Amino acid sequence: MNEHVRHANTVPLISKERIEERVRALALEIRQVYAAEPPVVVAVLKGSFVFVADLLRALGLDCSLEFISVGSYVGAKSSGAVEIKLDVSSDIEGREVLVVEDIVDSGLTLDHIVGLLQAKRPKRIMVATLLFKASAFRGAVKPQFIGFEVGPEFVVGYGLDLDGRYRWLPDIHVASEVEARGSPADK
Ligand code: XMP
Ligand code: MG
């Protein structure tokens, strides 16, 4: 992976070429499901902004796009609290909805998001996530579309951050153990 960006505190895990190939395959899968009725795509900010941009273009469906933002981790540890910071701006009642996540870890954030959207009475909610931490998952809603299953390590790049850093990395990397332990403020 010599040609890929290296960073002192990260180790490359999934190359941008593998991501590109997998996003194309996922888009084909998703297209079959929504051929009759394009969904409202609800991207979960901030981490999914790179994935949703690639996925939407690969999908080639006339989807509309909404953003939702909920509170998330400080450092690499979960604070447990999930507050809504930005809600969808259009009416999704009776609509097909595709939630797009960067990563589903314990699945608790996703449960919360799906609960919030369900209250708006859409026709159906499906979930696409680029990354799925199978070993950590204990949620009620399992994503129907999964890009890659990853281990328990904290990952960054391709939109995913560690305290706001590394979102720009074109590949997905594992954050170093020392840094992923987070700042003293998390503990
Ligand atoms: P849960 O545990 O609720 O976590 O499924 C979901 C949110 O936590 C963040 N998260 C990560 N972010 N690398 C990241 O950059 C990771 O390895 C990671 N694990 C969890 C992310 O915001 C996700 O939506
Ligand atoms: Mg997220």
Task: Write the SSE topology.
Blueprint: E1 10-14, H1 16-33, E2 40-45, H2 49-59, E3 64-70, E4 84-86, E5 96-104, H3 108-118, E6 124-132, E7 145-149, E8 155-156, E9 172-175, H4 177-180
Parallel strand pairs: 2-3, 2-5, 5-6, 6-7
Antiparallel strand pairs: 1-9, 3-4, 8-9
Helix pairs in contact: 1-2
The chain binds xanthosine-5'-monophosphate (XMP) and magnesium ion.
Magnesium ion binds next to strand 5.
Structural notes for this entry:
With 187 residues, the protein is of the alpha/beta class. The chain has four helices and nine strands. Strand 2 (40-45), helix 2 and strand 3 form a beta-alpha-beta unit. 32% of the residues are buried. Residues 181-187 have low confidence and may be disordered. The structure holds xanthosine-5'-monophosphate and magnesium ion. Magnesium ion binds at residues 44, 47, 72, 101-103.
CATH-level-2 architecture: 3-Layer(aba) Sandwich
Figure out the total of helices: 4
CATH topology: Rossmann fold
Distance between the termini: 35 Å
Q: Oligomeric form of this entry?
A: single chain
Order of helices and strands: EHEHEEEHEEEEH
Rounded to the nearest angstrom, the radius of gyration is 16 Å
- What's the shape? globular
Short recap of the structure:
The protein is an alpha/beta fold and 187 residues long. The protein is 24% helix and 27% strand. The protein binds xanthosine-5'-monophosphate and magnesium ion.
